[in-house]
Write a structure and sequence with these properties.
It contains 9 helices and 2 strands. It is an all-alpha fold. It has 2 domains: 197 residues, no CATH class; 76 residues, no CATH class. The chain has a two-stranded antiparallel ribbon. Belongs to the PRPH2/ROM1 family.
Length: 344
């Protein structure tokens, strides 16, 4: 017994074809949207490639771009088939390939769903990529005279101001590295000598942060140096004072930005997948209703449409039987070739 059997007359078939045709072209626009989101995500990754130590993966945006292109292609083709299905004489040329087309659509829908899942899961590897990239970027902040790193200071400053963040995990990360270039240090000064001498690695460390960490909304002038020295500032206690630098770490800020973007894209791909499933079901009804006309020579005769010609269990059994038959056939061919080789 067919699954979800529906009886059709000419009027219902025409209405079905028109509805599915409209859905197909709506799905084409959805494909353009997926393509656009893939391009946008790829551009956003490239914009901050330096902050990810150039280790960011473009597999997912490339996959989204590919899915968008394929979505546009198969839906444009499906729309053309639905349009021609209104005329049985034109539909005849599409009939032999429709079964394979529908199988391809089912596989493509499954791949779309996998793409959506990957969008939601990308946050995990991105977290480690950002952590490593930001850590290295902060170490290179002072290398304004080093080729290949001279723009890192500008990149980090702009990023901290744009995302209102400071450091990797928090502003204290700047206390653990030398972020002032040796070019701007007076090595004859006692303070500089003491700071460098007190550090095992010979770095000039201080309890300060770059200017880009300052919060412009704070009513107090930015305290970016000697942040842990209460006596260095009037009416100041760094334990209780609401510091006027950004407290949020940049890894968390960027992860939230990209994570939100990927969740949005993932939700969009899920919706596109649902639309693709709907148009695939619609096309199956169009195909089956035109293939079962009571009188093929009379376009106005009644017909039946279904999603599956048999029940799910019977269909699955048939598929498994065909796969086993194909497997046995390939083994027989291999055996025949081996026997022929032995005889020769």
């Amino acid at each position: 017994m067919a699954l979800m059997l529906v009886k059709f007359d000419l009027k219902k078939r025409v209405k079905l074809a028109q509805t599915v045709w409209f859905m197909y072209w709506f799905a084409v626009m959805a494909g353009v949207l997926v393509l656009s989101m893939g391009l946008f995500f790829k551009i956003e990754l490239r914009k901050r490639s330096e902050l990810m130590d150039n280790n960011e993966s473009h597999f997912l945006p490339n996959l989204l771009i590919l899915m968008g292109i394929i979505t546009c292609g198969i839906n444009a083709f499906g729309g053309k088939v639905c349009y021609d299905s209104l005329d049985p004489t034109k539909f005849v040329k599409w009939k032999p390939m429709l079964k394979n087309f529908l199988v391809f659509c089912v596989c493509f829908n499954a791949l779309l769903l996998v793409t959506a899942v990957l969008c939601f899961l990308m946050r995990i590897p991105l977290q480690f990529t950002l952590a490593e990239g930001l850590r290295n970027g902060m170490r290179f902040y002072k290398d304004t005279d080093t080729p290949g790193r001279c723009y890192m200071k500008r990149t980090l400053d702009l990023m901290q101001m744009e995302f209102r963040c400071c450091g990797n995990d928090n502003f204290r990360d700047w206390f653990e590295i030398q972020w002032v270039s040796n070019r701007y240090l007076d090595f004859s000064a006692k303070e500089v000598k003491d700071r460098i001498g007190s550090n095992v690695d010979g770095q000039y460390l201080m309890d300060g942060v770059p200017f880009s960490c300052c919060n412009p909304s704070s009513p107090r002038p930015c305290i970016q140096y000697q942040m842990t020295n209460n006596s260095a500032h009037y009416s100041y206690d760094h334990y209780t004072e609401d510091l006027n630098v950004w407290k949020r770490g940049c890894r968390d800020a960027l992860l939230s930005y990209y994570g939100g973007m990927m969740n949005t894209i993932g939700a969009l791909v899920v919706l596109v997948t649902m639309l693709e499933v709907a148009v695939t079901v619609g096309m199956q009804y169009v195909h089956s209703s035109l293939s079962t006309l009571a009188n093929p020579e009379d376009p106005e005769s009644e017909s039946e449409g279904w999603i599956l010609e048999k029940t799910v269990k019977e269909t699955f059994t048939d598929i498994m039987a065909k796969m086993k038959a194909m497997g046995k056939g390939s083994k027989v061919e291999e055996g025949g070739e081996a026997a022929g080789a032995t005889v020769s």
